[in-house]
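A favour between colleagues. Tell me how you read the following sequence-structure pair.

===
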Amino acid sequence: MASYLVTGGAGFIGSHVVDELCSRGERVRVVDSLVTGRRENLAHLTDVELMVGDLAAPDVADEVTRDVDFVVHLAAIPSVPRSVAEPVTTNHANVTGTLRLFEAARRNQVKRVVFASSSSVYGNSPTLPKHEGMPANPLSPYALQKLIGEQYARLYLELHGLDTVSVRYFNVFGPRQDPSSAYSGVISLFAKCLTEGQAPTIYGDGEQTRDFTYVKNVVDGTLRACHAPDAAGRVMNVSCGDRVSLNRLYTLMREYAGGGQDPEYTAPRVGDVRDSQADVSLARELLGYEPLVSLADGLAPTMDWYKSQTVHTA
């Protein structure tokens, strides 16, 4: 049995990571500010140590990394448009919090930190699929903040011997993704509209494409990254390796929902990339990673969850 710290573990992705670790019988500690995380995401688990705090605050990172073998660092404000609107706030969470975590992990001799990065670091390169050897071209403060996190991960390995791995996520979706914010992921927003009979808003013409990745895939890739011996210091894509337009996505979701209103189109958002698709060959090589759930197979449980939430809150 190993001990894990999951930062942001009360959030969408983090709570699924915690679920999987608990199912494996591991010891799990969670730190979460509960700004976007929710206690109810962990309410069904009895053996998780939840510590409420902001990693960017002095001493919090040092406290939560004591007596921990592995850290899965998910705590962040994961929003391109919010980072454009609030660059200082998001930098505090996404850069200062990450730096404090790496420094505390070094002092407390954590075995490995897996840093959750983002496909947004690639920017608008026309090359598809996007591979880790491509130059970064961040188009938003959020993308830049994630790239800085990757660079700090590399530096802490090279300068201090802290074992780090960075995994780049591509448009993760699934149950527990909060649709209540204007900054939420598009699948959660589409699902909310479909379950409430509203017309969704699509920014741009809807032909922009994304590599939507069911949350079970990123949980598997992330936990593989905790232990893969050849992954130290590397950056890897974790996704499905496919892409679909937002128009096609909404059509699929309407079919699952049994109908829905036509979308409303508006101007593209600043900082959004046009097309995104992952090359996952490096994760296959170093992690033994394979996508477990396709977009189509992931949409059914996701829509079922949103329907259950609508019934519960009605």
In short: Residues 87-107 form the longest helix (21 residues). The CA atoms of residues 306 and 312 lie 10 Å apart. The two ends are 42 Å apart (CA to CA). DSSP finds ten helices and 13 strands in the chain.
